[in-house]
C-alpha cells in the first residue's frame, strides 16, 4: 500500500471533520432544535385553548341566565311529568277540561303511538258549531303549546233533518293533538 500524500491526508481529515460535524448535528443539535419547535407549537396550541377558555368563562354568566330563562319557559313548551304515561294523563286532563270549558262533551280519549319525547292523543267529542271555534282557540292558546295534527268534523243527522241554526247544531269531532314531554 502506498502512503497518502499530505494533500490527500488533509482531504481525508476534512472529510472526517465534516462527518463528525454532521454526526454531531444529527445526534445533538437537531433533537434540541426539534424540541424547541415542538414546544413552540404546544405553546401556540395552549394559547389558543386558553383564549377559548377565557371566552367561555366570560360567557358563563350569560349562558347561566339563558339556561335559567329556558328552564322557566320549559312548562310553556313541554308537559313536565316523570313518565310518558303520566304526561299522557296530564294531557288528557287538560284537553278534557278545555273541551268542557268550551261547552263540549268528551266521548273518547285514546293514546296514539309516537316517537320518544312526544305525547299524542286522539279525542272524539261532541260540540256545538259556535263552541268548536272557541275550543280551537283555547287549544291554540293552551300551554304547553299543543300541535293539532288533524281535525275531522261531522254533523250527525245533517241529511234529511229539519234546518236549524248552524250554531246550535251539534258536531262530532275527532281531533289529534300532540305535545312534547320532558321528564321532571
Strand content: 15-25%
List the secondary-structure elements in sequence, H or E: HEHEEHEE
Residue-averaged pLDDT: 84
CATH superfamily of the largest domain: Ribosomal protein S6/Translation elongation factor EF1B
Number of structural domains: 2
Question: What is the CA-based Rg, rounded?
Answer: 40 Å
Q: Please give the CATH class of the largest domain.
A: Alpha Beta
Task: Offer a few descriptive terms.
alpha+beta; 2 domains; 5-stranded mixed beta sheet; single chain; Alpha-Beta Plaits; rod-shaped; 3 helices; 184 residues; 56% helix
Brief overview:
The protein contains three helices and five strands.
Describe the structure.
The protein has 184 residues and is α+β, with helices and mostly antiparallel strands. It has two domains: 1-78; 81-182, Ribosomal protein S6/Translation elongation factor EF1B (Alpha-Beta Plaits, 2-Layer Sandwich), CATH 3.30.70. It is built from three helices and five strands, in the order αβαββαββ. Strands 1, 2, 3, 4 and 5 form a five-stranded mixed sheet that branches. It starts with 5 loop residues before the first helix and ends with a strand.
Present the secondary structure layout:
Layout: H1 6-77, E1 78-80, H2 84-101, E2 105-112, E3 118-128, H3 129-141, E4 147-154, E5 170-182
Parallel strand pairs: 1-5
Antiparallel strand pairs: 2-3, 3-5, 4-5
Amino acid at each position: 500500500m502506498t502512503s497518502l500524500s499530505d494533500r490527500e491526508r488533509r482531504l481525508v481529515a476534512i472529510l472526517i471533520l465534516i462527518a463528525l460535524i454532521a454526526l454531531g448535528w444529527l445526534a445533538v443539535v437537531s433533537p434540541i432544535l426539534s424540541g424547541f419547535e415542538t414546544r413552540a407549537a404546544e405553546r401556540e396550541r395552549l394559547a389558543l385553548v386558553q383564549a377559548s377558555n377565557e371566552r367561555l368563562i366570560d360567557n358563563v354568566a350569560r349562558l347561566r341566565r339563558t339556561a335559567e330563562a329556558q328552564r322557566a319557559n320549559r312548562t310553556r313548551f313541554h308537559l313536565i311529568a316523570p313518565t310518558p304515561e303520566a304526561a299522557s294523563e296530564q294531557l288528557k286532563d287538560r284537553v278534557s277540561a278545555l273541551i268542557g270549558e268550551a261547552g263540549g262533551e268528551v266521548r273518547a280519549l285514546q293514546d296514539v303511538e309516537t316517537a320518544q319525547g312526544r305525547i299524542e292523543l286522539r279525542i272524539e267529542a261532541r260540540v256545538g258549531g259556535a263552541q268548536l271555534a272557541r275550543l280551537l282557540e283555547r287549544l291554540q292558546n293552551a300551554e304547553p303549546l299543543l300541535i293539532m295534527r288533524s281535525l275531522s268534523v261531522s254533523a250527525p243527522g245533517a241529511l234529511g233533518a229539519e234546518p236549524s241554526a248552524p250554531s246550535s247544531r251539534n258536531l262530532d269531532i275527532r281531533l289529534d293533538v300532540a305535545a312534547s314531554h320532558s321528564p321532571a
